[in-house]
Write a structure and sequence with these properties.
3-stranded mixed sheet, mainly alpha
């Protein structure tokens, strides 16, 4: 049981890895019997896991401390060298598709694996390697830029995550000042942010053209391995959000204004849900992890085993600190067969959300920690987010441990925030579609487009004269737009599925949990929509799905003790 700090990293000999990969590919191609074929395939997989482990170690340690010069340099080396290995995956996929053992492959690992390989074979050519290197470097530069934020506030220096508690303060003047300081820093970086994104759009469109795609949207969907829905389905889905969720979200915003007693709500007011303050967890990292340990041990034997491993092997880095990259994520270390959770605890309810959301991702990774072939466990992101967002709701019965007297407020804000997130998520997806349908747009046109889209989905926002936000700059803080294009809608799709689990769990916990365990184990083996059907969930792309859910969520909100929500 190796602790994270003891996991060894040595810069890989990339040329040696490439030589080994090419040797195994030749064996795969020349295999005369299926035993030889599968032996070569699994050898490629084992080597890929090893290289992935080294890359992930660098990425995590660079995230934890972007000022560590060793891992900063190693991250640069990885950005420079890893894209060449995309050729291996693409070549392997094509060999498997052309192989006389194709049928044997489908029988052993499932037909969906071949669907994935058909997409993989389309998204790489050797002539895009230099473009991929450029794309990687631009993304890393963006992430480093946001991590470099040093915001002077009330006599101290904070990063962007560290400013969040001030933006939820019960004192309106502090909220406004914190918002102005945080967005002011973003505005000060506007030219650099514009430059980075302009370069990203150009390089992505160039890659799409070289690969023969009509535009980057098609390539982005292929990169996400979406085999059963496209951007036309996304448009129908977004319309459901506009029709069924936006009106409900606006009603909830008006209730918030009445609760706060503010008639002229501004953007910096919406981060405060209650006059008595937002729900805050009791204790810092050590106390919260101790409570999570009890929670997961009581939820199920599997979750208890999983979370104790996370603690014992020190597979979490949770609290914000200077130089630490923003946000939170879960990743996986294949050679060690363990997940890792990264986050920025800052004293808000989001700290507990990490221990449920990212732990949901990590639990699924732990559940499927050692597949015979890694590609079978490679699932799409809308499936991945079901694991995390649903875990947030399955752990509701234990929230008293974290929030004490604020528990009822947490229940309310958790559901309301999740509902109000859907329009924002849809706005980001619609914006990205606009970006790549209009690749030659200027930075000013991009911001103007977002402001119009924002008014459609979030008509309540009043930026109180903040020029950067008024002109549509908010999206530049959404890292997914820069780093993981077209990922963001997946969160909303998963949220709709998580709401279904929440409703189901309140009705019949045993059946809901059984379905959840099934969706964790089957992830990657069949496509998203087929997986939902197999697990008893409604398909969010089918018209009326969301409209069926929202009334039940309203009923839940009405059932909460209003005396505790003020």
């Amino acid at each position: 049981m190796t602790k994270f700090k003891d996991m060894q990293y040595t810069r890989p000999d990339f040329a040696a890895y490439m030589t080994k990969f090419k040797g195994y590919l030749q064996e795969l191609k020349n295999a005369q019997d299926k035993e030889t074929f599968f032996k070569a395939l699994l050898a490629i997989d084992a080597l890929s896991r090893n290289l992935s482990t080294l890359y992930t170690l660098v990425s995590i340690r660079n995230s934890i401390n972007t000022k560590d010069t060793f891992y900063e340099a190693e991250m640069d080396v990885m950005d420079e060298n890893m894209p060449q290995f995309s050729e291996i995956g693409s070549t392997m996929a094509q060999i498997c598709l052309d192989s006389p053992f194709r049928k044997d492959l489908a029988e052993r690992f499932g037909a969906h694996l071949l669907e994935k390989y058909e997409i993989r074979a389309k998204i790489f050519k050797p002539e895009i390697v230099e473009d991929m290197i450029e794309e990687n470097k631009l993304v890393t530069e963006y992430e480093k830029l946001l991590a470099s934020a040093e915001i002077e506030f009330q006599g101290k220096t904070y990063n962007l995550s560290g400013m969040m508690p001030f933006m939820q303060n019960t004192d309106r003047s502090i909220r406004k000042a914190a918002s102005d300081a945080s967005w002011g820093w973003m505005a000060s970086q506007q030219d650099k942010l514009d430059e980075l994104f302009d370069k990203l759009v150009k390089v992505r469109c160039r890659i799409a053209k070289k690969l023969g795609f009509a535009n980057f949207i098609e390539l982005a969907y292929a990169r996400m391995t979406r085999t059963d829905w496209d951007y036309k389905a996304a448009r129908v889905y977004r319309k459901q959000i506009a029709d069924s969720v936006v009106p409900l979200a606006q009603k909830l915003y008006k209730e918030q204004a009445a609760r706060l007693g503010i008639k002229d709500m501004k953007n910096y007011d919406y981060s405060l849900n209650f006059l008595s303050g937002n729900p805050k967890p009791v204790g810092e990292e050590a106390e919260l992890v101790a409570q999570a340990k009890i929670m997961y041990e009581e939820l199920s034997p599997q979750t208890g085993e999983f979370f104790n491993l996370m603690i014992n092997q020190e597979l979490m880095d949770l609290t914000t600190k200077p130089g630490k990259r923003g946000g939170g994520y879960m990743t996986f270390l294949p050679d060690y067969k363990v997940p890792f959770i990264f986050s920025n605890f800052n004293g808000t309810s989001g700290d507990v959300d990490v221990l449920t959301h990212e732990a949901g991702h990590a639990f699924q990774g732990y559940t499927n920690r050692d597949p015979e072939l890694s590609d079978t466990a490679d699932y799409t992101m809308e499936v991945a987010e079901i694991h995390s967002m649903s875990m947030e709701f399955f752990t509701h019965p234990w929230m008293q441990r974290f929030f004490d007297k604020d528990t009822e407020k947490y229940y309310y804000s958790h559901v309301v925030d999740a509902l109000q997130f859907l329009p924002y998520g849809a706005s980001i997806d619609e914006l990205q579609e606009w970006f790549y349908l209009n690749p030659d747009a200027t930075p000013e046109q991009r911001r103007a487009a977002y402001r119009e889209i924002e008014k459609k989905y979030l008509p309540h926002l009043d930026y109180d004269g903040n020029e950067y936000l008024e002109k549509g700059g908010r999206w530049q803080k959404q890292a997914h737009v820069y780093a993981m294009p077209f990922y963001y809608l997946d969160y909303t799709l998963a949220q709709v599925c998580a709401f279904q689990y929440f409703i189901w769990d309140m009705k019949n916990h045993e059946e809901a949990w059984k379905s959840y365990m099934h969706i964790c184990k089957r992830a990657g083996q069949i496509p998203f929509t087929a997986l939902l059907k197999e697990c008893g969930l409604d398909n969010p792309f089918e018209d009326g799905c969301i409209a069926k859910i929202t009334p039940k969520l309203e009923q839940y909100l009405d059932s909460l003790d209003k005396s505790q929500i003020h």
